[in-house]
């Protein structure tokens, strides 16, 4: 829960937008030498904000996922002068010919977790929310899948991941909040259309 804070909504987009991702695009850091950060993004705020100010971000998106590692969703990119960038991306990733809910957090290197969506193979669109939460042990960033009703109301909030390090060192860090899409496969490995197109809507970003 978020206790004793004044919430301001910096972004609330009702219109839709798309991101087109060509082959060989990704956001991923893996030893010994992979450090990719060339996926197309769409900024959801005018610029970076202090990490201390970030409370919550939410987005709904859909795409035709055909090729291994096709992905789309939210990106929270942390920067601080003199420090190596950190980030979290979460949304959908296509793996073993199925759609999964995917979260990658990157402190030194990237780690990855996947789980089937609530709708299973019948998923048409996905709504993801990341939010600052506080419990008796401290603050962390939680990632949820939201199951929405016909009127957009939240019917279920399914927990996907708790990222404990994300808010552990807030001083001096700024966060950029973006939508992202990526198609890591090389062009010759793409199934179907060369580029991945992901459509986004329902953006909400809350700060304090």
TrEMBL record:
Family matches, as PANTHER family: REGULATION OF ENOLASE PROTEIN 1
Domain of life: Eukaryota
InterPro entries: DUF1349
Pfam family, one: DUF1349
Record's protein name: Uncharacterized protein
């Amino acid at each position: 829960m978020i206790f004793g804070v004044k919430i301001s909504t910096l972004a609330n987009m009702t219109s839709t937008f798309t991101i087109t991702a060509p082959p060989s695009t990704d956001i991923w850091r893996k030893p010994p030498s992979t450090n990719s950060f060339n996926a197309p993004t769409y900024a959801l705020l005018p610029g970076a904000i202090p990490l201390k100010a970030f409370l919550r971000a939410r987005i709904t998106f859909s795409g035709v996922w055909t090729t291994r590692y096709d992905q789309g969703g939210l990106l929270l990119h942390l920067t601080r002068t003199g420090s190596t960038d950190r980030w979290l991306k979460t949304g959908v990733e296509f793996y073993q010919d199925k759609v999964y809910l995917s979260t990658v957090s990157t402190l030194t290197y990237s780690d990855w977790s996947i789980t089937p969506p609530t709708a299973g193979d019948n998923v048409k669109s996905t709504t993801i929310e990341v939010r600052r939460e506080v419990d008796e042990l401290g603050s962390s960033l939680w990632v949820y899948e939201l199951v929405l009703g016909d009127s957009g109301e939240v019917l279920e909030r399914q927990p996907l991941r708790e990222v404990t390090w994300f808010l552990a060192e807030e001083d001096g860090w700024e966060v950029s909040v973006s939508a992202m899409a990526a198609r890591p496969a090389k062009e010759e490995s793409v199934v179907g259309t060369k580029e991945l197109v992901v459509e986004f809507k329902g953006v909400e970003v809350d700060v304090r």
